[in-house]
Amino acid sequence: MDGTVPAGLLASVRERRPLVHHITNSVTINDCANITICTGAAPVMAEAPEEVAEMVAAAGALVLNIGTLSAVQVEAMLIAGRRANELGIPVVVDPVGAGATTFRTGTVQRLLEALDVAVLKGNAGEIGVLAGTGGSVRGVDSGGVAGDPVETARECARVTGTVVAMTGEVDIVVDGKRAYLVRNGDPAMDRLSGTGCMAASMVGAFAAVADDYAVSSAAALAAFGRAGERAAMAGARGPYSFRTALFDELAGLEPRDLAEHARIEEL
Ligand SMILES: Nc1ncnc2c1ncn2[C@@H]1O[C@H](COP(=O)(O)OP(=O)(O)O)[C@@H](O)[C@H]1O
Ligand SMILES: Cc1ncsc1CCOP(=O)(O)O
Ligand SMILES: [Mg+2]
């Protein structure tokens, strides 16, 4: 994919500043709010079942992240997701820790059955579990997939009917037909909690300004990865100064830099 595509979508996010409604976990909620702002969009976190239908109506995308799930959150996710579907607002699901417990795996399956999900964004282990082809998950960490990662992502897209964005050293984005490999990023991104959640926030922000969610997801991951590359070049002293640089580099990321450095290959 030509770099002008992700660059154009980044510029659209900054111009339109879509509201991204999150129902998300209590570990990385603040990171997700700030990465959404650094991307150029506007976050809102709202999870009371009493208000989510009203809130999502003002949003450009809905991000459902199951990282610290509870029964009442599931109820809110279903209410918000159904309203988003009625209004044609894209729904992104981050299946954090799917495979680690029956409650997590079952909840993702329930969301996928009840809702029209635009993008399922998970790490390799989570996507392998949901594909049914084998994935290993410990807590929220991926232990990888059983077979070929691209085939795993394709199978997950086939069984779920969604665009699947599987993160890792190389991100893989697939729908029923196409497959994109996104080679941007830095290993330091794997040494922080929350980069997967932040990736989902960005996938949501980009989906809000796009019709083609495979293209917008690959673009979002390229932009995040490029910010990671620039943060590493800025010379962080360790994981936490890298984290600060990651936010700063994303906020300052120029569409023309992304146009030049996005590495998205279509298979
Ligand atoms: N080794 C790596 N090299 C480059 N980028 C990476 C690497 N590991 C993770 N990333 C990036 O970090 C983000 C989070 O991915 P990942 O670690 O798979 O998610 P999770 O936190 O859900 O396990 C993604 O944008 C991914 O591209
Ligand atoms: C550590 C942890 N525990 C529950 S949610 C969460 C954060 C996971 O974030 P990510 O999957 O983005 O690293
Ligand atoms: Mg994750």
TrEMBL record:
InterPro entries, alphabetized: Hyethyz_kinase (IPR000417), Ribokinase-like (IPR029056)
Q: Which cofactor does it need?
A: Mg(2+)
- For binding substrate, which residues are annotated in this chain's numbering? 45, 194
Q: In which pathway does it act?
A: Cofactor biosynthesis; thiamine diphosphate biosynthesis; 4-methyl-5-(2-phosphoethyl)-thiazole from 5-(2-hydroxyethyl)-4-methylthiazole: step 1/1
Q: Does the keyword Ribosomal protein apply?
A: no
Q: Does the keyword Cytoplasm apply?
A: no
Arranged from A to Z, the UniProt key words for this protein are: ATP-binding, Kinase, Magnesium, Metal-binding, Nucleotide-binding, Thiamine biosynthesis, Transferase
Q: Which GO terms describe its biological process?
A: thiamine biosynthetic process; thiamine diphosphate biosynthetic process
Task: Give GO MF terms, alphabetically.
Answer: ATP binding; hydroxyethylthiazole kinase activity; magnesium ion binding
Supply the EC number(s): 2.7.1.50
Question: Where is ATP annotated to bind?
Answer: 121, 167
Catalytic activity, reaction form: 5-(2-hydroxyethyl)-4-methylthiazole + ATP = 4-methyl-5-(2-phosphooxyethyl)-thiazole + ADP + H(+)
- Which family does the entry's similarity section mention? Belongs to the Thz kinase family.
What's this protein's function?
A: Catalyzes the phosphorylation of the hydroxyl group of 4-methyl-5-beta-hydroxyethylthiazole (THZ).
Instruction: Return the NCBIfam families for the record.
Output: PRK09355.1, thiM
Q: What is this protein called?
A: Hydroxyethylthiazole kinase
Species source reads Methanoculleus palmolei
